[in-house]
# Entry
Amino acid sequence: MAGGINYSRIIQIVTLLVFALGCGARYTADWESLDARPLPQWFDDSKFGIFIHWGVFSVPGFGKFSEWFWYWWKGLKYQQEIEFMRKNYPPDFQYADFAKEFHAEFFDPNGWAEILEASGAKYVVFTSKHHDGFTNWPSPTSWNWNSVDVGPHRDLVGELAAAVRKKNLHFGLYHSMFEWFNPLYLADAASGFKNQDFVFGKALPELAQLVKNYKPDLIWSDGDWTAPDTYWNSTEFLAWLYNDSPVKDVVVTNDRWGKGCYCKHGGYYNCADRYSPTQVPTRQREKWQTIDSLSWGYRRYMKATELLTLPSILKDMVYVVAFGGNYLLNIGPMSDGMIPPVFEERLRDIGSWLKINGEAVYGSKAWRNQTEPAVVPLYYTAKNNSVYAVIFGWPPNQRLQLSLPKTSKATNVTLLDYPNMPLTWKPVKGGGLVISMPPMAASAGNAWTLKLEGAA
# Structure
């Protein structure tokens, strides 16, 4: 293999040798064994993370799902993308030319990390490589199509990893398995995926290198749906990752490891894009959502009306957490490395809300009921011996009746805005309680949290 070590072959050889030596409790390269691995606790406790889609596609910043620009333009030949290029670029301009304009001249990893910390997020997932194949680190198997050889001339993955970890946030990496126009991949596809030249020459070596060099706490796999997991050699990679890699005890993985895998196999489940649970799952799930309702990557012409508002983000997040899941919120930085101010504003506002209400989010569990009909929308979470009711809107006449919590004489009710001021409440015949609410506390997110200690 030109340009680097064949990490995937090493993985296979080491794994086979270890199995042959008969070492103790280890994960074998099959889904029954891999799916039995307990999820590291940090992920379930975190609840809230930030997704970052950034790359060459951020330069044109055009179209719905702008990160798919190259495929819309040259693969499906969408008229909108063709017309955009005709109006703004010379006739011989190629997608690869955008890389020369991906300067990232204002990229300040420490500045990003400060914003990410201020958001209240506990983990970050950064795009190491999207479907265009451009790597945001100096991949030896992506010569002249990486962020050190061209464009920023910087190791974007390495710089952000170091800055994020200084803030004590968990650092994860998004990685696309396939690449739209890579000749090796196209040849494998033409063989009906009987050949695996792309897998052993590109996909697995890069995954192994990311793990070895950057030690991510999370691997967010994608681009797997075109071929089965046997083509991708996913189970062999995951067995190495869980048994012998430098992150074997802390790493978390999602469910995109081959056609038909999602919502079925993996560390935790993403299921479909923007998937919202309707019942408490038996396996941890994560909803990934984006502030820009039309794209994961940056769009230079996005409108305010197309962005999720703070109240809608908080309601969506608390809904997911009430069902026991994690919430991964996406931003798309500009090609110059600036996070659009409207995204920064949303993140800081979420963080301000979590400073007061995060007790109901971080480390929480799904309660026996997720919601109930009330005068305002609400969702329940639970932690230790407390039940939390997050309300969206202020109850009329400052009285809120909850039918589901079981109270006792020892029950104590507070609003997290006023943690040292117990609220007056009365039991209701047949179950539940009526709470006398204090004066409305300010909330840009239109969301408040009641804490019921000693309730069940």
In short: The two ends are 61 Å apart (CA to CA). The mean pLDDT is 94. Residues 417 and 442 are 9 Å apart (CA to CA).
